[in-house]
Specification:
- By secondary structure, the protein is mainly α.
- The chain contains 3 helices and 3 strands.
- A 3-stranded parallel sheet has the order 1-2-3, covered by helices on one side.
- Strand 1, helix 2 and strand 2 form a beta-alpha-beta unit.
- The longest helix has 25 residues.
């Protein structure tokens, strides 16, 4: 059973990577709402296929580790603006996700 769980997690990760690449190729704005420790990796992955007109931003609660890594590693001509949600709580993880978190909020 543990092997099946590992396979399912790997399949989900691969599917997420494919969706990210397709979205980054097509979108004019990509908002990263992944865990903070994954945002820089995801931005760098999307930046490989994003156009120069695509704006990449995030809703992570911390900026220094994300922005300092992207300052070093992000290609010239790719636009990343670190964002911060003005909504949420101290709780984290999928169990505490709220589908209307940003409704009527400034972001």
């Amino acid at each position: 059973e543990k092997g099946n769980t590992v396979c399912k997690v790997r399949e989900l990760a691969e599917a997420q990577a494919i969706v990210l690449i397709v979205a980054a190729r097509e979108a004019s704005l990509v908002l990263f709402c992944t865990p903070v420790d994954r945002i820089a990796d995801d931005v760098l992955r999307a930046a490989r296929v994003a156009s120069a007109e695509t704006l990449l931003t995030d809703a992570g609660s911390v900026k220094e580790p994300i922005c300092s890594r992207l300052d070093r590693e992000l290609s010239q001509g790719i636009n990343f603006v670190g964002g911060h949600p003005l909504a949420g709580s101290e709780k984290q993880g999928f169990a505490h996700a709220l589908p209307d978190l940003f409704r009527d909020r400034v972001c």
